[in-house]
Specification:
alpha+beta, 3-stranded antiparallel sheet, paralog of FGE (formylglycine-generating enzyme), globular, single chain, 252 residues
Length: 252
């Protein structure tokens, strides 16, 4: 295998043990959440799809420490005849990737490494970001500028993956908030027991798969572990949509 193949095959996996995640937000706290982030001008209705909070069990899995980079996606694009990836530099997260292309990358990498690769489910993503407790952000309960590449940082574009080690999740997963909004494999639907006014579908979305974490252009509300988002605009590069990899747990 050539050097390029060796580079792309080296996924920095983090093992996430089986365990609980306190998914979502209690319905009786939604109004308070909306007030806490009132300066971001996000309607309360957007937060209501996080309700109710439910403790669920997530089986063991692996997740990549960082998002797929421009460099690694470029090898896939060249090999499959897709357009060159978007991103300022090789070590930045690739952005502007459609969900179908993200899943095609997973299949392509599977063939190269001989093991299953996929996008994380929404529940897996929240477990990797939140750990065993109900923390608001991957690093804890208080937002601090400088722990993630969001709009308040003022960069205006992506940064190299892993640039904010102090913003790591309890498992050591990096960039779970900011830099690039990340595809999951989960189609939007209300959580079981959601408030009656939560929409059954998001027909206005460009793609109805859930994204998580927010991008460089987003405000701190999207850094919250519970925040459910989506690709609501067609220009996926402008809104900063990328992806990271997941896989079954390593064989014992």
């Amino acid at each position: 295998m050539d050097d390029g193949g060796e580079a792309v095959d080296q996924v920095d996996w983090i093992d996430i043990p089986a365990g609980p995640v306190r998914r979502g937000t209690p319905a009786d706290e939604i109004a308070a959440v909306a007030r806490r982030y009132a300066d971001t001008h996000v309607p309360e209705a957007w937060y209501r799809k996080e309700a109710p909070r439910t403790e669920i069990h997530v089986p063991a899995f692996r997740i990549a420490r960082t998002a797929v980079t421009v460099e690694r996606y470029a090898l896939f694009a060249a090999d499959t005849g897709r357009p060159a990836p978007r991103g300022p530099a090789a070590d930045h997260p690739v952005i502007g990737v459609a969900w179908e292309d993200a899943t095609a990358y997973c299949r392509w990498l599977e063939e190269r490494i001989g093991g299953a690769v996929r996008l994380p489910t929404e529940d897996e993503w929240e477990r990797a970001a939140r750990g065993d407790d109900g923390r608001e952000f991957p690093w804890g309960d208080e937002y601090r500028t400088g722990l993630a590449n969001l709009v308040d940082l003022g960069v205006g574009t992506t940064t190299p993956v892993g640039s904010f080690p102090d913003g790591a999740s309890p498992f050591g997963v990096l960039d779970m908030a900011g830099n690039a909004d990340e595809w999951t494999s989960t189609l939007y639907a209300p959580y079981p027991g959601a408030p009656d006014d939560v929409p059954v579908t998001e027909d206005w979305a460009f793609d109805r798969h859930i994204t998580r974490g927010g991008a460089f252009r987003h405000d701190r509300d999207l850094a919250r572990c519970a925040r459910r988002h989506g690709a609501y605009e067609e220009d996926l590069a402008a809104i900063g949509v990328g992806f990271r990899l997941a896989a079954p747990p390593a064989a014992a």
